[in-house]
Amino acid sequence: MTITVSIDTLQTSLRHVLGTQIQDLQLALGELTLTVKENDYLAVATTLRDHPALAFEQLLDLCGMDYSAYKDGAESKYTQAPRYAVVLHLLSLTHNWRLRLRVHASDDDMPQLDSVTNVWNAANWFEREAFDLFGILFKDHVDLRRLLTDYGFIGHPFRKDFPTSGHVEMRYDAEQKRVIYQPVTIEPREITPRIIREDQYGGLK
After folding, report:
1. Domain containing residue 63
2. What's the pTM value of the predicted model, to 2 decimals?
């Protein structure tokens, strides 16, 4: 009962404070998801943190999303939306409530969004990870470098069109006495697991 009242209060506060800056506000599985436009993203983030009726002081997580082939092509509101998005999970310590914030990058070829590191300092490495894995650029980020992959890595491995085997492999070359990169030598193949069924497996009949 308390959770329901809290979510209702948050939903009402969001609509009152943000007004037309709300692109979409959905309640599902006991969680609110707020979607805003790219141009409103930084201003909304600042309001979510600073407005006393919202007070989202803490950023818990920020991740990239690739909505191409969303649900294997099933028709949804994302099939017509831009391909890349960033999703943030926020916590208000003051009000003890949470919010999911989503913003789509309008350019599929070069997705770019404002950095929210000046709003929540914790966004620094999260944005670096989203850049590294999805290729999403963050304007005014102080140090936007790859975080998890190597400096010479080609592509962004969490994009849905990235090959599972990658583009290059590395190995130690005894003659050159150093690690070198070379084209992938693994041949892709489909593996169908062999399933063995026993009528009385585990004592069942």
Report:
1. 2-149
2. 0.79
